[in-house]
Amino acid sequence: MTSTDLSAAQARRIALAAQGFADRRPTGGVDRRHLRRVFDRVNVIQVDSVNVLVRSQELPLFARLGPHPRTMLADAIDDGELWEYWAHVAAIVPSAQHRLFRWKMGRDEEWKQITRRAREKPRLVEEVRQRIRDSGPITAGDLEQRVGTKGSWWSWDDGKVVLEHLFQRGEVVAVRRRRDFARLYDLPERILPASVLDAPTPTEAEARKELLAIAARSMGVATLVDMADYHRQWRPHSRQPLVAELVEDGVLQPVTVEGWGKPAYLHRDAKVPRTVDGRALLSPFDSLVWHRARNERLFDFHYRIEIYTPVPKRIYGYFVLPYLLGDRLVGRVDLKADRAAGVLRVQGAYLEPGVDAAAAAGPLVEELRLMAGWLELDTVASTDRGELAEALRRAGVISVEPDCSSKPARIQSRTS
Question: For residue range 192-202, what is the model confidence (pLDDT) as tens digits?
Answer without folding.
Answer: 999 999 999 99
